[in-house]
Specification:
The chain has 22 helices and 16 strands. The chain is of the alpha/beta class. The model has no long low-confidence stretch (mean pLDDT 94).
Length: 554
C-alpha cells in the first residue's frame, strides 16, 4: 500500500502525555478519593453492581510504584461506531504495557465484542502497531455493535479470557459499550475471577461526559472536520447567493456537535434539540421560525442561508418524542408479529392501530417516507435509527410549503431554494487532530496504569483538558458513578446517562448571545482544514465547547 506524505509524517508524531505519566514508569503512584454513588437510582444500581459499586475516584501522580512492572496479558476491543483517535488509544495502551514490562502482551479482538465472544484476535507486535500510530479509523482490528447481554455470551467471554490467560479486558466505546464493560467487570468478580475490565470514553457525539470525563475522544476531530465542510458551504452560499443549505449533523441523542459547529462557523440558524424539548416546540413552530428567518433575510436582499440541524432533533420535538417512545416500546413487544408483515400498508395499519389516539394522529400527519423510516429496523439497543430519518429534507419541504402559503397571502416575495446535506461518516475516520492524538494516547496509557494497579470497573480519565497537555491530570472514575436506570426493550436496565447540552452552560449561552445577529446578518466564519504542524495556537487548540466550559476562551 502506497502511503500519502501526511500519513508518513504522522507516523513520526510523538503524542504528548500528562506530566505524571511521562517519567519513570515505576514512579507513577495512585491515590484515591472518597467513595462514590451512581448519578441516580442509587439503590437499584447498587443492587445490580454489588461487587463494583461505590468505588473511589483514582488519580495518578508522582511516587514509588514498582508493582506496575509486572507481566500482563491484556485484551482490547473497539465497540460501536468509529471515532478519530481509536488507534492511539491502542498504541498508548500497548506502549504502556511494553514500557513497564517487555514481556507483557496485548491482544486485539476482531470485530468488536463478537471477537471476545468468538475468541478471534491478533497479538500486537511493534511492527503491527507502528502502522496505525496517529491515524484515523478503527481498521486496526475493526469494530462491531454486538452487545454482550445473554448468559451464554457472558460465559463465552469468560472462557475466552481464561483461555487467553488475560489479566484484563479494555473496552473502547460509548455510553452503552461502557455500560456493558461495567456489567462484564461485575460478572467476572461474581464468577470468582480476578480478570479486570477498564473502559475508555469514545463517541464523536460528545454525550459521554461529566466533571471527570470532560470530553469523549473523537469529538474534537469530528467537529473540526465538519466545521471545515460547513465553512466551505458558507463561503459557497455567500458566493452564489441563491441557496439555503440545511445541514444535518451527527448527534443521535445530543446536540453537542451542532452547537460546537455553530460556534465555529456562525450559521444563520442552529437548532439545538435540548432547547426544542425545554421550550416544548412543535414541528410546526420550528418550521415557522425558519420560514420567518428566510423571509427576514430575503427582505434585506439575502436569498441564501445556512441551517444546522442535529441528527436526533426529531426525538426531542415533544409530540414526536412521545410517538417514537411508543413505537420503540410497541415494536419491542410485537417484534415477531411486525416482522411477518410484508409491505408498508400492512405495517402502517398494524402500528397505527396500536398507538394512542394522539400519537396515531401525529403519525398519520407525516409524509409516507418519514413514517417508513420511523418503522425501520431498530438499532441494537432497541431505538429508532434517527440517522435514517431525513429530517433536513423534511424541514426543507415544510419550510417551502410554509413560504408558499406566505407568498399566497402576500407576506413573502422572495425566493427559497433548499439543498440538503448530512455530515456523518465524513468525520468518523479523519486523521485525529493533535488534541485527539494526544488525548487518546493518554487515555490508552492511563488504561494500562489502571490495570497495572489492579483496578476494575473503571473508566480511563484525563482532566483539565482546556489547558496545555503539561497541565492534564490522569486517573480513573468508577463506571457505576455515571449510571442510572432507563427503559430499554421494554425493561428497566442500568445505563450510563447521556450528557445532553446544558442550556445554562457557557457554550449554549455563547450561542444565545450571538444568534440573533448571526440570523439576519451574514457573519460566517471559516475554520479551514485541521492543521497538524505549526504554531500551538493553530494546531493544538481544544474545541470552543471545552474552552468555554473551562473559562479559557480568549
Amino acid at each position: 500500500m502506497e502511503l500519502s506524505p501526511l500519513q508518513i509524517a504522522r507516523y513520526g508524531y510523538v503524542p504528548k502525555l500528562p506530566p505524571a505519566l511521562s517519567g519513570d514508569i515505576g514512579q507513577i503512584a495512585l491515590t484515591f478519593g472518597e467513595a462514590t454513588e451512581s448519578l441516580a437510582d442509587q439503590q437499584a444500581v447498587k443492587a445490580l453492581f454489588s461487587h463494583t459499586y461505590g468505588k473511589p475516584i483514582a488519580t495518578f501522580g508522582v511516587g514509588s510504584n514498582e508493582g506496575v512492572k509486572k507481566e500482563l496479558r491484556v485484551g482490547v476491543i473497539l465497540s460501536g461506531g468509529q471515532a478519530p483517535g481509536g488507534h492511539n488509544v491502542i498504541t498508548g495502551l500497548y506502549d504502556g504495557l511494553k514500557k513497564a514490562n517487555p514481556n507483557s502482551l496485548l491482544f486485539g479482538f476482531l470485530g468488536g465484542p463478537s471477537g471476545l465472544i468468538d475468541d478471534k484476535a491478533v497479538e500486537f507486535t511493534d511492527s503491527y502497531i507502528d502502522e496505525f500510530r496517529n491515524t484515523g479509523g478503527f481498521d486496526i482490528i475493526g469494530s462491531g455493535r454486538t452487545k454482550i447481554e445473554t448468559d451464554e455470551q457472558f460465559a463465552a467471554v469468560l472462557q475466552t479470557a481464561i483461555k487467553r490467560r488475560l489479566n484484563a479486558v479494555v473496552v473502547i466505546g460509548g455510553d452503552d459499550s461502557n455500560t456493558n464493560a461495567a456489567l462484564l467487570a461485575e460478572y467476572f468478580i461474581a464468577q470468582g475471577t480476578d480478570i479486570q475490565v477498564i473502559g475508555v470514553p469514545k463517541t464523536i457525539d460528545g454525550d459521554l461526559k461529566n466533571e471527570y470525563i470532560e470530553t469523549s475522544f473523537g469529538f474534537d476531530t469530528a467537529c473540526k472536520t465538519y466545521a471545515e465542510l460547513i465553512g466551505n458551504i458558507c463561503r459557497d452560499a455567500n458566493s452564489a447567493k441563491k441557496y439555503w443549505h440545511f445541514i444535518k449533523l451527527m448527534g443521535r441523542s445530543a446536540s453537542h456537535i451542532a452547537l460546537e459547529c455553530a460556534l465555529q462557523t456562525r450559521p444563520n440558524i442552529a437548532i439545538i434539540s435540548e432547547e426544542v424539548e425545554a421550550k416544548k416546540q412543535s414541528l410546526s413552530e420550528i418550521v415557522e421560525t425558519i420560514a420567518n428567518l428566510v423571509k427576514a433575510r430575503s427582505e434585506q436582499g439575502e436569498q441564501f442561508g445556512i441551517a444546522l440541524i442535529p441528527e436526533g432533533l426529531i426525538e426531542f420535538i415533544p409530540e414526536m418524542k412521545i410517538l417514537i417512545a411508543e413505537l420503540n416500546d410497541l415494536l419491542a413487544h410485537h417484534e415477531q408479529e411486525f416482522a411477518e408483515l410484508k409491505n408498508f400498508e400492512a405495517q402502517y395499519a398494524f402500528v397505527h392501530g396500536k398507538l394512542t389516539n394522539s400519537s396515531a394522529q401525529v403519525f398519520a400527519s407525516l409524509p409516507q417516507g418519514i413514517r417508513a423510516q420511523l418503522m425501520a429496523d431498530r438499532d441494537p439497543h432497541g431505538n429508532v435509527q434517527v440517522s435514517l430519518i431525513d429530517t433536513e429534507k423534511l424541514l426543507i419541504q415544510m419550510v417551502g410549503e410554509k413560504l408558499s402559503q406566505m407568498r399566497s397571502q402576500g407576506s413573502f416575495k422572495g425566493k427559497f431554494s433548499g439543498l440538503a446535506h448530512f455530515f456523518g461518516y465524513e468525520g468518523r475516520c479523519a486523521f485525529p487532530s493533535n488534541f485527539d492524538a494526544d488525548y487518546c494516547y493518554s487515555l490508552g496509557f492511563t488504561a494500562f496504569l489502571l490495570i497495572a494497579n489492579g483496578l476494575t470497573g473503571y473508566l480511563s480519565s484525563v482532566r483539565n483538558m482546556a489547558q496545555p497537555s503539561q497541565d492534564w491530570i490522569a486517573g480513573g472514575i468508577p463506571l457505576t458513578m455515571m449510571m442510572n436506570m432507563e427503559k430499554r426493550h421494554g425493561k428497566d436496565k442500568p445505563v450510563i446517562k447521556k450528557a445532553l447540552v446544558e442550556l445554562d452552560g457557557a457554550p449554549f449561552r455563547e450561542l444565545v448571545k450571538n444568534r440573533e445577529t448571526w440570523a439576519v446578518k451574514t457573519s460566517f466564519r471559516f475554520p479551514g482544514a485541521i492543521q497538524y504542524y505549526g504554531p500551538t495556537e493553530v494546531c493544538d487548540q481544544p474545541t470552543l465547547t471545552l474552552a468555554l466550559e473551562q473559562g479559557t476562551k480568549k
